[in-house]
Amino acid sequence: MDCYTANWNPLGDSAFYRKYELYSMDWDLKEELRDCLVAAAPYGGPIALLRNPWRKEKAASVRPVLDIYSASGMPLASLLWKSGPVVSLGWSAEEELLCVQEDGAVLVYGLHGDFRRHFSMGNEVLQNRVLDARIFHTEFGSGVAILTGAHRFTLSANVGDLKLRRMPEVPGLQSAPSCWTALCQDRVAHILLAVGPDLYLLDHAACSAVTPPGLAPGVSSFLQMAVSFTYRHLALFTDTGYIWMGTASLKEKLCEFNCNIRAPPKQMVWCSRPRSKERAVVVAWERRLMVVGDAPESIQFVLDEDSYLVPELDGVRIFSHSTHEFLHEVPAASEEIFKIASMAPGALLLEAQKEYEKESQKADEYLREIQELGQLTQAVQQCIEAAGHEHQPDMQKSLLRAASFGKCFLDRFPPDSFVHMCQDLRVLNAVRDYHIGIPLTYSQYKQLTIQVLLDRLVLRRLYPLAIQICEYLRLPEVQGVSRILAHWACYKVQQKDVSDEDVARAINQKLGDTPGVSYSDIAARAYGCGRTELAIKLLEYEPRSGEQVPLLLKMKRSKLALSKAIESGDTDLVFTVLLHLKNELNRGDFFMTLRNQPMALSLYRQFCKHQELETLKDLYNQDDNHQELGSFHIRASYAAEERIEGRVAALQTAADAFYKAKNEFAAKATEDQMRLLRLQRRLEDELGGQFLDLSLHDTVTTLILGGHNKRAEQLARDFRIPDKRLWWLKLTALADLEDWEELEKFSKSKKSPIGYLPFVEICMKQHNKYEAKKYASRVGPEQKVKALLLVGDVAQAADVAIEHRNEAELSLVLSHCTGATDGATADKIQRARAQAQKK
Amino acid sequence: MAFPHRPDAPELPDFSMLKRLARDQLIYLLEQQHEVDKLYKVENKPALSSSEQLCFLVRPRIKNMRYIASLVNADKLAGRTRKYKVIFSPQKFYACEMVLEEEGIYGDVSCDEWAFSLLPLDVDLLSMELPEFFRDYFLEGDQRWINTVAQALHLLSTLYGPFPNCYGIGRCAKMAYELWRNLEEEEDGETKGRRPEIGHIFLLDRDVDFVTALCSQVVYEGLVDDTFRIKCGSVDFGPEVTSCDKSLKVLLNAEDKVFNEIRNEHFSNVFGFLSQKARNLQAQYDRRRGMDIKQMKNFVSQELKGLKQEHRLLSLHIGACESIMKKKTKQDFQELIKTEHALLEGFNIRESTSYIEEHIDRQVSPIESLRLMCLLSITENGLIPKDYRSLKTQYLQSYGPEHLLTFSNLRRAGLLTEQAPGDTLTAVESKVSKLVTDKAAGKITDAFSSLAKRSNFRAISKKLNLIPRVDGEYDLKVPRDMAYVFSGAYVPLSCRIIEQVLERRSWQGLDEVVRLLNCSDFAFTDMTKEDKASSESLRLILVVFLGGCTFSEISALRFLGREKGYRFIFLTTAVTNSARLMEAMSEVKA
Questions:
Q1: What gap in Å lies between CA B275 and CA B315, rounded to an integer?
Q2: Are residues A132 and A160 in the same domain?
Q3: What is the pLDDT of residue A423?
Q4: Considering just the CA atoms, what is the radius of gyration of chain B in Å?
Q5: Are residues A177 and A34 in the same domain?
Q6: Which residues of A touch B357 (CB under 8 A)?
Q7: Which of A193, A317, A414, A443 is a plausible cystine mate for A180, CB 3.0–4.6 Å?
Q8: Architecture category of domain B220-328 in CATH
Q9: ipTM for the whole complex
């Protein structure tokens, strides 16, 4: 075990720091790091190098090269820099490379050197040039802070949503500050800068001088400052070789250290773990690396090569020409287990497991010792936790084996933590692999979350690995596999050398109908790359027609969009497309399109019926739909027109249309209506009263009721009212008038075409039994019984029924026999029935 | 009497959840966001409220949008500034927003949606309360509500589990079914693994069976609907029923013990039942005599209230019956029914035609006359040209020339057509398919054939044995088949189709019927081979009527359920009857 802690360096009494190698770098650097602009993204992100920067003032004819490598030094991209001089490089939270140019333009590149976009930091920056720039990370995203040639600061807290802020002036600032940094506190970005012995804090409103509490006297200048990963702590390096460490709010001092080196350090970064009490700063000079904290002694390393520090959440990465190392505080669990002569339960458990493998009885002794103290659960937990912090798979395995061994002696140890740790380590080991080159620690991984890690793998186009991880972790398809496949497809459509056919087929083969994959999103990407045909092909695979429509509209394939919308059955969508088409096409084309789509047409007609009557007419006209056109004008004659002349004119148009539609019936009916309207108008003029808009029947009735019998007759003749109707009409009207005399005259005018039963009925309705009886006698034989029953003459009805020998009539009469009065009649019928049956 | 369910009949799911869901959402929309204090009905008149904020709860119709626009614009003219909120139920349509925009008030109003699509009217009856569905879809060809139906089905399946067996017939049924399936697929996993509570779902278009809906109803509930019009499960009984000078609004559902026992009965039995009931009630009241003080106390505290309640309901229904009797048992009604039966059976067509003619000549009722004409047309596969013209002429003379448009509507919906040699239809079809070459072509010809299709009623009737053979009197007290809902003269076509399909568990063997119904492409079966469905759930059947169903159909299926040990649940776009169908097709002067 002794050798295992060999690389542990104590800092003070309570903490150990260790440095181990992540990778030996594979890159083939031609230049020294110090000659390059360097940017390395946190969370094991990529490294960007811009060689041959302008400050060396070499021959301007040589264009510099921008190289991007993975953390293990695998080349990801290399491109010739053709734009202006670059002052600073930095990675955004989305792993996009931001290149700040001297003129204040910021060029954004992807991981693979693909140009994404650019933005400017404003006119003021353009005029005064950029002196220095920093890219920093906030909870909103990534920010850019710029120091201009006029010694003013401009910053944007989030480049995704660019809002430029010009910071207030520092009074009396004549030269560039000796050092400065961007701070992020209470969700607001500040600038802290040092000018000589003074420190200033710039916020949006003001510039205030600040003094770190407990700062040693005699400082005439600050050479370097460092903010911790979480913006909670600040370290200052002075020209006296003194380091002040405190909170970033400058309210509290944590510790101080005097290293007695007056040379300005090349880099200074914080090295601390989340939830650890230890604070330490790593300071790098040309050939020396020093870890200082709250201890009288520091840890010193010698740097063989030109190195670069990358602050991480829980340590510092150090890369150089040949190696990539990680320096961090040894986590508590590992310390407990591996510290020399540790008696912690985890340490004992690890020992016990080792002895057990050697088949030694000592295993039992160790185990008993833990169990006696009742610390087995704790021991297992320690081993699991420590495994997470180990970089070497061998050590991870032996710790996990120990945990698993200990678990056997526990009754109810929840398996989750063990299982999850195994899974997490498997994922971590996979992405730490040399070829992938994402050296994440367990803490970083947990902070980053699996979703972000998957995004980063996708960003690196490591689709197979990402899918394997999803499948291994059994992530829901929508979050996992399908999302990655969709990304893959979006990448695939950008391969311009492959034909549309092949790309579409390849994508469909891989994706099939995986749930959660949106073909329309992929198609949108294809369209974005200018491959409209491919986009249409891809849309064919989209099962939800509704999803295809918006993109088709965007691609100006409105007619296709219309048929897709119709297919989707979503009328609302159809409508959206329709109005789009209406604005896009000229009227004629629009109508032609509608003509081929009956469903859309009926929808549009509906809309027009309420909103655009004239358009509706045009639609029918263009279709030569005379039938509907006729109906349209009929409707207009009731709704739109007030004056009689207008209404008649509308009806005339309607009648013409009906003729064209070969609908003689409707045409004739309409013409009759025109005649009737004119006549009604005349009647109103001559007789007064209300006639307009009555039906023909009602018009005649009104005339009779008003005593204008002659007119009524005339009208009936003119409009050829059938006899039957006329008789019904007159009968009802006269009965309503209770003009019994006239009714009788009328009944005798000729033989009634409707028989005389209606006369009986109507008289009874007016409760005139006397009149009813008159007509009952005239009713024909088939209806005689009914008539007699109506007037209440049951006895006679019975006689007639018996005479007719009609069974149905007999039972009808019988059902009318009520109470004692008709008793005799009932008997008579029964007798007749009996007789009939005998025969 | 009154169908007591078989002891093994399955329990119905609890639909009150739907009500709670909708209520909570509405309360949230109204109170949390808008602090409503008073509700007004949307009518075409200026709003008198003086409040700072107006909130409209409306169906997404263009007419309503114009009304709102007129209000807002009037306020603008008067220099008033108010906040306006429009809540669309069940959903917002783009066309509505368009109108708001065209009227220039889009920026003044804010919009919300209240996704309330299923109103449980009774323990086994869910209504979407979309009477406009019928006209919109079957006349105007507007498919906007189909999505709403699909969403309602989706809601049901999320609440009550998936439906293992699905059947359907009709163009709209198929579209709704497919849209619904898409929704389920999109939100995969939600219903997966749930035990189905309802074993079967059957979707049916109203135009598959217009005949049943056009017949006069003679089952008590249907008759009450025909006479007094049941609205949202309640009816206004006027003074002639309540025998006092006030109208009374009465809820008609299974809660009403008296009604629940007579609702499915043929009207001829109802009176007898009610008088029996009255006697029983009296007997229960009479028990008081000879009670000692303790028993009396018990009686007053426990039974009296229930008895009084029952008494009140009983007198209401007796009043309703009297009123119906007065209207319906007259000679005319008997003859009307006789004519209907003759039409259904297909004999004495000439006599029936002249009866209809007389009906029109006497101006009995525009809606009734229209109904009879349609019934004649459908049962006879269209009117012969001479009758078609003369009946229409008579009708126009009697009821006004604007009905020329009504006839054009009825013709389009296939309700009132002219017998014609078959070539006219095919001519239109071939013309259309020449015009359109893409996928949609099939759909269009389908659309045409569905709109102008022949009814083939006579042949279907024979195939499905819809007219029962009468040997002797049909005993309406002890019905032997579903025909009892039409006095034993006719088994409702829609119900017979459902019965047959459920029996076969598919459309197998019904090909000829399906062809005659012109639904060859629109009859579908979809069964999932899952054994998770309990035998209990497999006897629960959800029947979805697209375009409305009548109380007679509900009664007939309740009867079928009792016979076979099923229970039916009804989902309809609205409860309808012949008058409502005819009114939906009528053009009335504005």
A1: 10
A2: yes
A3: 93
A4: 26
A5: yes
A6: 724
A7: A193
A8: Alpha-Beta Complex (3.90)
A9: 0.81
pLDDT in tens, A181-215: 998 887 888 899 998 888 999 988 888 888 888 88
Q: Kindly report the average pLDDT of chain B as a whole number.
A: 84
pLDDT band for position A387 (50/70/90)? very high
Tell whether A220 and A205 lie within a shared domain: no
Of B401, B408, B440, the CB nearest to A566: B440
Please check whether residue A327 is in contact with residue A271, taking contact to mean a CB–CB distance below 8 angstroms: yes
CATH code, A58: 2.130.10.10
- Locate CATH 1.25.40.850 in chain B: 332-380+382-422
B94 CB neighbours in chain A (<8 A) are 572-573, 575-576, 579
What band does A380 get if pLDDT is binned at 50, 70 and 90?
Answer: very high
- How many domains does one find in chain A? 4
Q: Which of A306, A329, A352 is the last residue of a domain?
A: A329
| A397 within some domain | yes
The C-alpha atoms of residue A367 and residue A813 are separated, in whole angstroms, by: 111
Q: Taking a contact as any Cβ pair under 8 Å apart, which residues of chain B between 177 and 216 contact chain A? A: 178-179, 182, 185-186, 188
What 3 state SS string does B225-245 have? Answer: HHHHCCECCEEEECHHHHCCC
**Substitution target from A514, A591, A606, A694 for chain B, most B beta carbons within 10 A:** A606
**Whether A183 and A277 share a structural domain:** no
Each residue of B126-168: pLDDT tens digit?
999 999 999 988 988 888 888 899 999 999 988 888 888 999 9
Q: Give, in order, the Cα–Cα distances in Å from A625 to each of A621, A631, A661, B302, B447.
A: 6, 10, 7, 72, 18
Residues A119 and A133: their CA atoms lie apart, in Å, by 15
| CA distances from residue B426 to A448, B38, B104, B411, B440 in whole angstroms, order as listed | 68, 57, 46, 17, 18
Note whether B490 and B215 are within 8 A (CB): yes
What CATH number belongs to B33-113?
Answer: 3.40.50.2060
What's the confidence (pLDDT) of residue B450? 41
Residue A518 lies in a domain: no
> Do A202 and A224 have their domain in common?
no
Residue in A157, A248, A172 with CA at minimum distance from that of residue A210? A248
Domain finish residue from A329, A360, A384: A329
Residues of chain B with CATH 3.90.830.10: 220-328
Chain B closest-CA separation from residue A691 CA (Å):
12
Residue B396: predicted pLDDT: 92
Q: CA–CA separation, B507 vs B484, rounded Å?
A: 26
> Is-above-0.80 flag for pTM?
no
pLDDT surpassing 50 at residue A784: yes
Q: Which domain holds residue A93?
A: 30-209
| Domain B332-380+382-422: CATH class, spelled out | mainly alpha
Burial (CB count <10 Å: 0-12, 13-18, 19+), residue A89? buried
Q: Which residue has the tokens 């002569």?
A: A341
Pairing, β B119-122 against β B125-127: antiparallel
> In this model, does residue A53 exceed pLDDT 70?
no
Helix orientation angle between B403-413 and A626-639, rounded to the nearest 10 degrees: 140
Are residues B440 and A597, on separate chains, in Cβ contact within 8 Å?
A: yes
Position B32 confidence tier, pLDDT thresholds 50, 70, 90: low
Residues A249 and A227 in one domain: yes
Put simply, the chain B residues between 528 and 567 with a CB less than 8 A from any chain A CB are none
Chain B positions in Cβ-Cβ contact with residue A732 (cut-off 8 Å): 362
Read off the pLDDT of residues A688-717 as tens digits, 9 standing for 90 and up: 888 888 889 999 999 988 888 888 888 888
Chain B residue with CA closest to A606: the answer is: B140
What is the architecture of the domain spanning B119-209+492-585? 3-Layer(aba) Sandwich (3.40)
Is A580 within 8 Å of chain B by CB? no
Cβ neighbourhood burial of B365 (10 Å; 0-12, 13-18, 19+): middle
| pLDDT exceeds 90 at position B542 | yes
